[in-house]
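=== RUN LOG ===
request id: a7f3
mode: sequence -> structure
chains: 1
length: 220
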Amino acid sequence: MPALSLPCLCLVTRREPWGEDALVQKVAAAVEGGVTVVQLREKDIPGGQLLALAHRLRQVTSGRALLVVNERVDVALACGADGIELGEEALPVAEARKLVGKGVLIGRSVHSVEGAVAAAREGADFLVVGTIFPTASKPGAETAGLALLRQVGKAVRIPYLAIGGVDESNAAQVIEAGAAGAAVIGAILEAPDPKAAAARLKEAMQKAWAKRAKVGVARR
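=== RESULT ===
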């Protein structure tokens, strides 16, 4: 089974307002900058179009980053994706596992400690936890803050990524709070230089990750 490279920088796709061609270019640049997981999340397009886009993203991520497809198990299998991401109301993890087998990562989006515990119990390989900070992608959404990350860390033993308003200014904070990485959209896709934006995010997380590791060793 593929493994997350930690700390994990995940780019969640959003093709509008740029279009698919520009999105693929931005993803390719972001992968060069240090993105290690690309999550294809385009809920409003039909399966055939989604699969075509998945194949294009598979080409730019192959051998360089993991490709995860949001909820569409059929598309994930058809394009040879490394994993699927399930929303809280999507297929149960156990049912998804029956479809994808043991060689595909299964992530679950959660918004509470209870959701995290349930997903881990069901066999999820990793979690995406949010919404942590205010974000333009979900205006007005209630934010959980760093406290939720700390609480999830005490309750589960699988990796979890922070999502929601994570950018260069606070990426280190989510690592310090226990997250194994972050999933971002605008912090990279809206940047003038997606490659440079990804590199700065990755550097901030790696520094915090190294600091956290040293603290952990010192406490032993």
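=== NOTES ===
The two ends are 31 Å apart (CA to CA).
The chain is about 45% helix and 15% strand.
=== END ===
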